[in-house]
Amino acid sequence: MARSTTSDDGGTGTAAGTGSGAAVPERLLAEATRLFAGRGYDRTSVQEIVEAAGVTKGALYHYFGSKDDLLHEIYARVLRLQTERLDTIASRDTPVRERLAEAAADVVVTSIQNLDDTKIFFRSMHQLSPEKQKAVRAERRRYHERFRSLVEEGQRDGHFRPGLRADLVVDFFFGSVHHLGTWYHADGPLSAEQVATEFSDLLLHSVRQP
């Protein structure tokens, strides 16, 4: 069923995706993502974004205060998704090895599914305001701490090697995840799920007790 949305002039319409009938914020984000990925954040103007989205500058500034608000939201929406999924996985009443394996695979799949978003952000994060950079780092740190808690739980329970520094395990793993944008291609030989399985297996083998 289509959802009701507010149009540029304050009226209502229907939206079912990110095409011309989509909600204004979704259209703006979709076109900003496409343009930032294709020509770079610096070389994309607000005017080009609103023309591509078929809205006015007033509509953009109604939902996003500035171009860097768009950049922030492009990454923040991915991080929110991954955080919600991690919280669900980590809260399950299943063995910690299974939860860590699932969490590791999930972040790989969701990163690949949103590869343009993450590539744009890591390439352009330095162009955010200092306040937004600080907020993003805090949000990402909370995610990494939740992930690290699974490693620490496994260590306490005797399933994972106690001598490992859990923070370094997490930094090492996410360094590989963040590097996906430099080599992964959707038309390449590996699917997102295959990469996720390999990454998850590598992490589990590195932390498990001999």
In terms of topology, how is this protein built?
Layout: E1 3-6, E2 12-15, H1 24-39, H2 46-53, H3 57-63, H4 67-90, H5 96-113, H6 115-124, H7 130-156, H8 166-178, H9 192-207
Antiparallel strand pairs: 1-2
Helix pairs in contact: 1-2, 1-4, 1-6, 4-5, 4-6, 4-7, 5-7, 5-9, 7-8
Can you give a write-up of this model?
The protein contains 9 helices and 2 strands; from the N terminus they run E-E-H-H-H-H-H-H-H-H-H. It has helices at residues 24-39, 46-53, 57-63, 67-90, 96-113, 115-124, 130-156, 166-178, 192-207; strands at 3-6, 12-15. Strands 1-2 form a two-stranded antiparallel ribbon. Strand 1 and strand 2 (12-15) form a beta hairpin. The termini are far apart.
Summarize the structure.
The chain has 210 residues and is mainly alpha-helical. It has nine helices and two strands; from the N terminus they run E-E-H-H-H-H-H-H-H-H-H.
**Proportion of residues in helical segments:** 55-70%
Give the CA-CA distance, first to last residue: 52 Å
How many strands in all? 2
- Give, in spatial order, the strands making up the sheet with the most strands: 1-2
Structural class: mainly alpha
Q: Which value, in Å, is the CA radius of gyration?
A: 20 Å
Most strands sheet: 2 strands, antiparallel
Order of helices and strands: EEHHHHHHHHH
- The outline comes out as elongated
Number of helices: 9
What percentage of the residues does DSSP assign to strands (E)?
A: under 5%
Q: What would the average pLDDT be, to the nearest integer?
A: 88
Low-confidence stretches: 1-20
